[in-house]
């Protein structure tokens, strides 16, 4: 599914390949995996934890998420496109609600910053990374290691796989 892009922004597929911004890929969740190709073509990645502490309200994770997005944007100077794992089915209700909250904040943040964004189906990501649309987490981690990355967990591996898909499929928009 492609998320509707406002008239003031450019869809990721149509973005100018000479744009100077970074490309950000996210695997949204309490432990969010992220990967970014910077303007100089350097790729950085990792995970970020958004589990609320016992003294925080439930909304604090989303405020910290938005603040973290601002931090990434500040470090990159410019982000030309955001890609995220588009999940259609969750193991439980809590996971679905948490994903929905992150997705709502991500898309609102992108709209506010005029950054085009696109969801990429899970099967598409796995097929691109491993050749199988129903590949296991371990297979995606192994595929990213075979590409020279060292993901610490499946969240970071998924973000790297999304970024790899975006670079290979969309033509290296940056």
Please provide a written account of the structure.
The chain has 174 residues and is an alpha/beta fold. It has a single domain, classed as Ribonuclease H-like superfamily/Ribonuclease H (Nucleotidyltransferase, domain 5, 2-Layer Sandwich), CATH 3.30.420. It is built from 5 helices and 5 strands, in the order βββαβαβααα. Strands 3-2-1-4-5 form a 5-stranded mixed sheet. β4, α2 and β5 form a beta-alpha-beta unit. α1 crosses α2 and α4 crosses α5. The N terminus is likely disordered.
Essential attributes:
43% helix; 5-stranded mixed β-sheet; 5 helices; alpha/beta; single chain; 174 residues; Nucleotidyltransferase, domain 5
Main sheet: strand order: 3-2-1-4-5
State the name of the first-level CATH class.
Alpha Beta
- What is CATH's topology name? Nucleotidyltransferase, domain 5
Which CATH-level-2 architecture? 2-Layer Sandwich
Distance between the termini: 21 Å
CATH superfamily: Ribonuclease H-like superfamily/Ribonuclease H
Tally of contiguous helical segments:
5
DSSP strand count: 5
Helicity level, as a percent range?
Answer: 40-55%
The SSE order reads: EEEHEHEHHH
Shape: globular
Give the percentage of residues in beta strands.
Answer: 15-25%
Which radius of gyration do the C-alpha atoms yield? 15 Å
Task: Describe the structure concisely.
With 174 residues, the protein is α/β, with parallel strands linked by helices. Helices cover 43% and strands 19% of the residues.
